[in-house]
Write a structure and sequence with these properties.
Layout: E1 2-7, H1 12-26, E2 33-42, H2 44-48, H3 54-74, E3 78-86, H4 90-100, E4 105-109, H5 115-120, H6 128-135, E5 140-143
Protein name: UspA domain-containing protein
Organism: Polysphondylium violaceum
InterPro entries: Rossmann-like_a/b/a_fold, USP_A, UspA
């Protein structure tokens, strides 16, 4: 079984990454691909702003994951959804999930973000992609 994990955040880049891995899975004659759909809700920045958007973020994340899951299900592609709420680093959470699920490749959409967008997305210490390139124990594909 080939396990691929795609990090989804609703961006155009992650949509393109999903379309790519979906195409790979559709054209796999062995049908041995399993796609793990990962969405992380980072609650740290919200707490710092003293706002309570966690519930809305979770509902939005669940709806987003279900859209991708439905596409895979319609095409008979094996998948698993992973929704993680964390106060820890998003970068480290991605690595933890990859190790936990024996992921063979991580797929990530990457867009340039200003400082406010990084705070909202929980990328406070810098680029997630750069961290994953240095710390992931499996190959990483980045879509821009």
């Amino acid at each position: 079984m080939n396990n691929y994990m795609i990090c989804l955040d609703g961006s155009t880049e992650s949509d393109r990454a999903f379309a790519w891995i979906e195409g790979i899975a559709l054209n796999d004659p062995s049908k041995q691909i399993k796609i793990f759909l990962l969405n992380i809700i980072d609650t740290k920045p919200i707490d710092k702003l003293n706002l309570d958007f966690d519930h809305d973020k979770k509902i939005c994340a669940e709806k987003g994951l279900s859209v991708y899951a439905n596409r895979l299900q319609l095409n008979n592609i094996k998948y698993e959804t992973i929704l993680v709420e964390t106060y820890h680093s998003m970068r480290e959470t991605i690595i933890e999930q990859a190790e936990k699920h024996n992921i063979d490749m991580i797929i990530l959409g990457h867009a340039s973000k200003n400082k406010l967008k990084r705070v909202i997305d929980g990328d406070l210490r810098g680029k997630i992609a750069t961290y994953l390139l240095k710390h992931a124990n499996c190959p990483l594909i980045i879509f821009k």
